[in-house]
Amino acid sequence: MKHPSSRAFFAYWDRQRGAAPTPQRSEIEPGAVRELLGDIFVLSCDSSAGYPFRVAGTRLCALLGRDLKGESLTGLFAADSRQECEDILSVVAEEALPLVAGATTASGDGSIAHLELLLLPFAARAHTPLSMTGLLAPLGARIAGEFGELRLTAWRTLGRPSRRLRPRVLRKWEVARGLMVYEGLR
After folding, report:
1. Are strands 40-44 and 53-56 parallel, antiparallel or unpaired?
2. C-alpha to C-alpha distance for 84 and 117, rounded to whole angstroms
3. Which of 4, 11, 83, 150 is deepest in the core (most CB within 10 A)?
4. What's the number of CA atoms in the CB half-sphere (13 Å) around residue 143?
């Protein structure tokens, strides 16, 4: 992670989850990350609605020039990045893996801005809509003017690997001449 706010929010989220894969939503205390709240958002994990913002920080809304509540996160991305954005959001929601991504956008005068997107899952609870939190912050100086559509540049998952993805030893069985069967993941 490049942005200090991303590192600070991830460190707090990581402390709150302890030994669990993800923290409960109630374990994230806004007062503990007061200085980061302007860049933080909470998304509803509704893929059919494009992962709409439930809450968006004031610096984030100012950065994009509008109130983002109810707006789709995937709708902020250009058509050529939208599917990849949906894919990484589903990784965070379904696999409960934290993720960091790079994005770029152009302002009205053609200046390119680089941003960092941090996505952090919450633990799923019965009778509670699934949601995730995150942070979107510019890398370097803020560019004046309204931003255009975002484009993903790179992304990677963070933290401890899932226990479900343990490496397995493959055994080779010869079933018939010329046919090999490898035992693998089911």
Report:
1. antiparallel
2. 13
3. 150
4. 19
In 10 A of CB 66, how many CB atoms? Answer: 11
User: What residue type is assigned to position 185 of the chain?
Assistant: L
Q: What domains can you pick out in the chain, each with its CATH number?
A: 4-160 (3.30.450.20)
Residues 6+ apart with CB under 8 A from 135: 3, 5, 6, 9, 36, 39, 40, 41, 116, 117, 118
List of E strands, 59-178: 99-106, 112-121, 131-139, 151-157, 172-176
- As a whole number of angstroms, the distance between CA 74 and CA 84 comes to 9
- Distance between CA atoms of 133 and 13, rounded to whole angstroms? 10
Total Cβ atoms within 10 A of residue 2: 12
Segment 81-121, tens digit of pLDDT = 999 999 999 999 888 899 999 999 987 777 888 999 999 99
How big is the chain, counted in residues? 186
Confidence of residue 172 (pLDDT cuts 50, 70, 90): very low
- The structure tokens listed for 181 are 């069967």
The residue type of 110 is G
Q: Of 40, 157, 63, 152, whose CA–CA distance to 103 is shortest?
A: 152
